[in-house]
């Protein structure tokens, strides 16, 4: 599945022979304090370029900024998929979707795939999960292996609206309250807590205070709801600059509200005397499109507005105030957490322990991949995994398997992916495409989840934009 971390290759050989990332072993053990506990914070649909610590001009994220300042911030972290379910499965396993087998709702995580929670539970940790969306909380997907059923808490992301539609609400305060209750009632042994927040996802419904602070007067027709944006996407409409500014400002307002919720959760850790013994990891599963390449919402492409995510580590065993520029991936989450705890990772992983990157060393040059897109329509049929991505350093290849179209971008000189270099660099395209093909040759067959979705859950997924709500109009 992978090329060992100790193996050195030239770029051409690496591109031709690599099947993905390096195995998770090989990182040295640091003689530093080790954390007793782990708090993994997953902020759904959060773009790093809308956070102050990643260069955003607006003060959206003072709590996240402060966390980054006392730890390590990865400036160039990528998700393995542009939507929630496969991306979280990657976080929990250290494997790409092609290797863990969960690309859509019809698939479940095979029992033999080992999750972070399973490893920690087997090593004496009490495990908790507070989840803020049904589309990963449903037990039939089986991505919460390692959590006792009574310790997985689903905080609903939606409620019925006055017109019968679902309203996607901000539930972050309830997620944080539930997480605090878990910790307050915990046993006196190490804990692993996953806290998942959905507030940055549409519907955009910021508090009146944050709306007044971040959103300029707007006289257009947009309301920030998922259903309206799905309709716009289905019709292929291009929004005006005032409309897009309005959406981005609503997004900023939502992020600030979420950041305030995080402040309370992290203050609780400090009040309980847990902050000095807890490794805190903050990230997101994917970003959001504001028509940078014509799209809205997320799930369908492999551009940076969807794949680039924030990634921050802070706590014992992590230096303060470091920024790592080298490209990394969410496949690295599991081995890096285990490394800080002094625990061995599973034998076969796609990810690496990232500690060498923050302790004066470098990571091996390797390929990164993106796949498992969702809700695309080809010839009238909804399909999964149409678009794939392969990246080496700053070179990034996009492949559309239905049309065989390829694009090549240099993210160093063109971070917004506006200048396609494929026609002028056919050899680079060929090498990256060969590497992507070899990676996909190692894909495992997904196992059926048996998830015959109820009409209630189907309606919720339509409202969230995950169930082909706009496919008939494309």
Report what the structure shows.
This protein is α/β, with parallel strands linked by helices. It has helices at residues 11-17, 62-69, 84-93, 97-100, 116-122, 134-137, 172-184, 208-214, 226-235, 241-271, 304-307, 333-341, 355-358, 426-441, 455-464, and strands at residues 37-43, 71-74, 77-78, 107-108, 126-131, 152-154, 158-160, 166-168, 191-197, 278-283, 289-290, 296-297, 308-309, 311-314, 322-324, 328-329, 367-370, 376-378, 381-383, 387-392, 395-400, 405-410, 447-448. Mean pLDDT is 88; it is low at 1-31.
List the topology elements.
Layout: H1 11-17, E1 37-43, H2 62-69, E2 71-74, E3 77-78, H3 84-93, H4 97-100, E4 107-108, H5 116-122, E5 126-131, H6 134-137, E6 152-154, E7 158-160, E8 166-168, H7 172-184, E9 191-197, H8 208-214, H9 226-235, H10 241-271, E10 278-283, E11 289-290, E12 296-297, H11 304-307, E13 308-309, E14 311-314, E15 322-324, E16 328-329, H12 333-341, H13 355-358, E17 367-370, E18 376-378, E19 381-383, E20 387-392, E21 395-400, E22 405-410, H14 426-441, E23 447-448, H15 455-464
Parallel strand pairs: 1-9, 1-10, 2-15, 3-16, 5-6, 5-9
Antiparallel strand pairs: 2-14, 3-13, 4-23, 7-8, 10-14, 11-12, 17-20, 18-19, 20-21, 21-22
Helix pairs in contact: 1-14, 7-10, 8-10
């Amino acid at each position: 599945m992978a090329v060992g971390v100790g193996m050195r290759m030239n770029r051409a050989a690496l591109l031709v022979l690599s099947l993905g990332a390096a195995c998770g072993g090989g990182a040295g053990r640091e003689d530093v304090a080790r954390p007793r506990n782990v708090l993994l914070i997953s902020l759904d649909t959060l773009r790093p370029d809308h956070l102050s610590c990643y260069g955003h001009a607006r003060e959206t994220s003072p709590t996240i900024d402060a966390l980054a300042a006392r730890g390590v911030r990865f400036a160039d972290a990528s998700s393995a998929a542009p939507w929630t379910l496969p991306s979280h499965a990657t976080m929990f396993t250290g494997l790409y979707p092609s290797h863990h087998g969960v690309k859509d709702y019809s698939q479940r995580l095979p029992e033999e795939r080992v999750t972070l929670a399973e490893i920690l539970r087997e090593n004496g940790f009490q495990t908790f999960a507070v989840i803020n969306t049904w589309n990963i909380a449903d037990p039939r997907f089986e991505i919460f292996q390692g959590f006792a059923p009574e310790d997985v808490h689903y905080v609903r992301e939606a409620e019925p609206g006055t017109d019968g539609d679902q309203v996607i609400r901000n539930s972050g305060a309830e997620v944080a309250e539930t997480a605090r209750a878990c910790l307050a009632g915990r046993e006196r042994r190490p804990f692993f807590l996953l806290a998942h927040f959905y507030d940055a996802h549409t519907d955009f419904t910021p508090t009146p205070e944050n709306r007044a602070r971040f959103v300029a007067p707007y006289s257009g027709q947009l309301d920030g709801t998922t259903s309206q944006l799905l309709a716009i996407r289905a019709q292929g409409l291009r929004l005006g600059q005032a409309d897009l500014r309005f959406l981005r400002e609503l997004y900023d307002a939502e992020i600030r509200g979420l950041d305030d919720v995080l402040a309370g959760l992290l203050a609780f850790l400090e009040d309980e005397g847990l902050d000095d013994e807890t490794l805190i990891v903050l990230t997101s599963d994917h970003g959001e499109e504001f028509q940078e390449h014509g799209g809205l919402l997320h799930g369908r492409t492999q551009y940076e507005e969807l794949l680039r995510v924030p990634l921050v580590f802070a706590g014992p065993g992590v230096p303060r105030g470091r920024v790592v520029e080298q490209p990394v991936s969410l496949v690295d989450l599991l081995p890096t957490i285990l490394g800080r705890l002094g625990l061995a990772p599973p034998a076969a992983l796609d990810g690496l322990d990232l500690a060498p990157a923050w302790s004066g060393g470098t990571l091996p040059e390797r390929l990164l991949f993106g796949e498992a897109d969702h809700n695309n329509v080809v010839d009238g049929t909804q399909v999964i995994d149409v678009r794939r991505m392969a990246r080496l350093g700053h070179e990034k290849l996009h492949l559309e398997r239905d049309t065989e179209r390829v694009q090549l971008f240099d993210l160093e000189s063109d971070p917004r992916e506006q200048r396609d270099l494929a026609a002028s660099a056919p050899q680079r395209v060929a090498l990256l495409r060969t590497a992507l093909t070899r990676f996909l040759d190692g894909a495992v067959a997904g196992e059926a989840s048996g998830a015959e979705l109820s009409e209630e859950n189907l309606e919720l997924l339509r409202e969230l934009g995950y169930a082909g709500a706009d496919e008939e109009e494309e």
